[in-house]
Amino acid sequence: MTIQLETVYDEYNRYIYHLCLKLTRNKAEAEDLMQEVWVKVVRYESYVAQVDHLKAWLTTICMNTFRDRYRKNVRRSKYMMNQPDTLDVPILDLVPNNELTTEEVIEKEDVAQLVHAKINELDGIYRNTLLYFYVNQYSLVEIADLMKVSIGTVKSRLFRAKQRLKEMMLLDEVTASAVLPA
């Protein structure tokens, strides 16, 4: 560490520690976080001389490091678990699988077909507005240009199309039972 970094460390060490302690609310984690912050400061030593507000710069490094650690821990905890010693099942069998089951895929496809059939029963203006917006994912401005109407008209048609589609689906017993929760 150069003399300049030593001065920065001597001057701001306590401040950074207290900030880390305030963020983590844990003495051991605060010390780990503080160490990461100072490692980054040493890594970017060439910038120290160019920084106008050193305390603000150090605070930003500290806050960003804390956020990065938090995000990393959240991501890790989502997929990792501590396996108890008495457990006979491999840990990977306990990790939730985000993929849909075959039954869920079939059910989703069936619902999609029912909704698509009901959309096809709508009047042409409403059907096209829904398809442009939800299927083709055009913006309201793009739909207005395509249909040669104002944006307000597109919004009205979209609202009415959704209302009409909802009514049609609720009136049909097969569709209503597939779409509504049991």
TrEMBL record:
<dbReference type="GO" id="GO:0016987">
    <property type="term" value="F:sigma factor activity"/>
</dbReference>
<dbReference type="GO" id="GO:0003677">
    <property type="term" value="F:DNA binding"/>
</dbReference>
<dbReference type="InterPro" id="IPR013324">
    <property type="entry name" value="RNA_pol_sigma_r3/r4-like"/>
</dbReference>
<dbReference type="InterPro" id="IPR036388">
    <property type="entry name" value="WH-like_DNA-bd_sf"/>
</dbReference>
<keyword id="KW-0804">Transcription</keyword>
<comment type="similarity">
    <text>Belongs to the sigma-70 factor family. ECF subfamily.</text>
</comment>
<dbReference type="InterPro" id="IPR013249">
    <property type="entry name" value="RNA_pol_sigma70_r4_t2"/>
</dbReference>
<dbReference type="InterPro" id="IPR014284">
    <property type="entry name" value="RNA_pol_sigma-70_dom"/>
</dbReference>
<dbReference type="Pfam" id="PF04542">
    <property type="entry name" value="Sigma70_r2"/>
</dbReference>
<dbReference type="InterPro" id="IPR039425">
    <property type="entry name" value="RNA_pol_sigma-70-like"/>
</dbReference>
<feature type="domain" description="RNA polymerase sigma-70 region 2">
    <location>
        <begin position="9"/>
        <end position="75"/>
    </location>
</feature>
<protein>
    <submittedName>
        <fullName>RNA polymerase sigma factor</fullName>
    </submittedName>
</protein>
<keyword id="KW-0805">Transcription regulation</keyword>
<keyword id="KW-0731">Sigma factor</keyword>
<feature type="domain" description="RNA polymerase sigma factor 70 region 4 type 2">
    <location>
        <begin position="114"/>
        <end position="165"/>
    </location>
</feature>
<dbReference type="Pfam" id="PF08281">
    <property type="entry name" value="Sigma70_r4_2"/>
</dbReference>
<dbReference type="GO" id="GO:0006352">
    <property type="term" value="P:DNA-templated transcription initiation"/>
</dbReference>
<dbReference type="InterPro" id="IPR007627">
    <property type="entry name" value="RNA_pol_sigma70_r2"/>
</dbReference>
<dbReference type="InterPro" id="IPR013325">
    <property type="entry name" value="RNA_pol_sigma_r2"/>
</dbReference>
